[in-house]
Amino acid sequence: MGGGSIKSMKRLKKNNRLGFTIIEMLIVISIIAVITAAVIVAGNRARIAARDAERINTMGQVVLALERYHEKYRGYPNSDNAGCGGWDTPGNGTFIDVLRTEGFLTNKVKDPKGDSDCGNYRYYKYAASVYGCPADYYVLEIMDMEKTTGKHKESKGWACGTRDWTSEAEWVTGHFQ
Questions:
Q1: DSSP 51-108
Q2: Residues 6+ apart with CB under 8 A from 40
Q3: What is the spatial order of strands in the sheet that 171-176 belongs to?
Q4: pLDDT in tens for each of the 177 residues of the chain?
Q5: What are the DSSP calls for 131-149, one per residue?
Q6: 20 to 30 Å CA-CA from 42: which of 12, 77, 123, 141?
Q7: Backbone dihedral region for residue 69 (phi beyond 0: left; psi -120 to 50: alpha; all else: beta)
Q8: Which residues pair with 142 in a beta bridge?
Q9: Domain boundaries, the chain
């Protein structure tokens, strides 16, 4: 073989390089980073929606337990006024304990992100004369939903007489005795 063919083989090897350039590697890393960020955001949204759904499901169980209590005792559990701002909460109040002791509620009532001193759920039983309502009633609230701000679409809302609790909590319901 002549000297010219060695030079052309070296040139051929240079042109048929193995590996990636730095720019190609940066492009691949950028694409992977964008895809990873999208997956993380979607996962966080799904976890938030799941926790909100768990909150609404928990309150549905509490409402059913309150109705079963009402069927047996012809009234709803009284508030003990010892909770946060007078409201009964799972961490500081008796209404959950009464529902569990009576067997109307089997699951522990706890917010999926954990309970603060006041908790995320509130209950209060009002007398008919309070706010000019026609009968005794209770109000049950979820204070903080994660997915939305303001009234949550699953909330039935509750107003009676001169007070509307709908704007005070992100999810609220109530019922007359």
A1: HHHHHHHHHHHHHHHHHHHHHHHSSPPPP-S-SBTTBB-SSS-SHHHHHHHTTS--S-
A2: none
A3: 121-126, 137-142, 171-176
A4: 555 566 655 555 555 667 788 998 999 999 999 999 989 888 888 888 888 888 888 889 999 999 999 999 999 988 877 777 778 887 766 778 888 888 998 877 888 887 665 678 889 999 888 898 999 999 999 888 887 654 556 677 899 889 999 888 888 999 998
A5: GG-SS-EEEEEE---SS-S
A6: 141
A7: alpha
A8: 121, 171
A9: 21-176
Exposed (0-12), middle (13-18) or buried (19+): which is 177, by Cβ within 10 Å? Answer: middle
Closest by CA position to 161, among listed 176, 150, 172: 176
Closest CA to 124 of 169, 162, 155: 169
C-beta separation of 122 from 115 below 8 A? no
**Closest listed residue to residue 140, CA positions, set 55, 72, 73:** 55
**Which residues, 6 or more positions from 87, have their beta carbon under 8 angstroms from its beta carbon?**
79, 93, 118, 122, 123, 124, 141
**The amino acid at 115:** D
Rounded Cα–Cα distance for residues 142 and 152 (Å): 10
114: left (phi over 0), alpha (psi -120 to 50) or beta: left
